TrEMBL record:
InterPro entries: RtcB (IPR001233), RtcB-like_sf (IPR036025). Monomer. The gene is rtcB. Belongs to the RtcB family. Binds 2 manganese ions per subunit. Mn(2+) 2 binds at H235, H324. Transmembrane segments: none annotated. It is an enzyme of class 6 (ligase). This is tRNA-splicing ligase RtcB. It comes from the Bacteria.
Amino acid sequence: MDLTLVAESPYRFRLEQQDPMRVPGVVFATRELLPQAAGDKSLEQVANVATLPGVVRASFAMPDVHWGYGFPIGGVAATDIDAGGVVSPGGVGFDISCGVRLLAADLDTGRLAPRMRQLMDTLGHTVPRGTGRGGLWHLTGPGQMAELLAGGAVYAVGRGHGVPRDLDRCEDGGRLPGADPSGVGPRAVERGLGQVGSLGAGNHFLEVQAVDRVYDEETAAAFGLRAGQVCVMIHTGSRGLGHQVCTDHVRAMDQALRTYRISLPDRQLACAPVDSPPGRAYLGAMAAAANYGRANRQLLGQAARRAFASAVGADLELVYDVSHNTAKLETHEVDGAPVRLCVHRKGATRALPPGDPELPEDLAAAGQPVLVPGSMGTASYVLVGTVGNDAFRSACHGAGRVWSRHQALRQVRGEELRGELEARGIAVRPSSWRGLAEEAPRAYKDVDAVAAATEGAGLARLVVRLRPLGVVKG
DNA sequence: ATGTCC
């Protein structure tokens, strides 16, 4: 396919529809942010996604788009369920329900400073992280796992890990409906039993941050945020359990392609109709894995609360918890009529506008917080959903990688990077030197530019900028 | 992302 991009506005580029695409591609970015890394095939992937059966409107890419498995990371695509639309595990990603939780402390940076070292040491010693390894909550067995997979953060709070108010500030109230724990295989269950309440590795982290800049005072206040305030941002997902669920169902769907006579430009887009046995099986297992991810972040939020209580004597209120790797059944207006859709967001955050009935009462007038973590040592952002977002109410999810992990390892030494960050006043508690080097800020796009482009494209509005004070690295 | 290969 000829991948010519046509600028429709300074923040919106169009990939013209051509055979076998069923819809055009739309990339939200500035010219500077468009994928240009050697070997980045993400624009080709945007076009590939546009060939999926039942896809409607367009195959979208957010400003942080980069190459991924099948779908690009930063990709959004919706399929019409009643017109044979498909669901694809590659459109969710291996880390099912990977997402971000932001908590705000009743504390400003000045009062934290003398206790910062103690706080970071406490977090460093109590937050489980790294590949494999254990978590904060060891489940007793498959029976308890089934309850957690069905209940997500609701189950965790019911067992004393948090307060009911937390659930008001979680996407879907902390529990994605439609979970089918029986679709999560024994191997996935085995991997997950000891990992509830763990960060994992890669780009996952727990960061202590400060509200650095406020763009919209009224919305910030509705979110419980003010200038100079200390916050905690947690970025993690469904660990080995979600990975295993994706692996198992990609295999099943690859075999289902023949049954449903689906031809694809890339086998990594393996999929099945939403309304089919393999489609329903994946969505049930995916929702269960999503609930694992939500319980995981709930447990880590509690670990942060304990550390703040003991080291600083401060409380943490949940601002919001939202996933950026999901496939959700939603109704949107397409060509003037409501249509039942399966919306894939892979490295893309749902962004509900003010007035949406899914919002909790105290956020109804403001809109949904959109949590955008930056790369290590750089800023993070809170944005808010806006009216008129035609990417099925979706926004960016982070900075977006430009160097491969391998490439980063050739350019950066972890020990040196830690020194650079500490010299800039950012405390670092690493898990491995290698992992630290792979996550060097140089390996990512400029998150300030990504956030600005997201606002420029009308996907969401800036609310606050957060700067890092200390990072507990996965 | 991931017991970075069953």
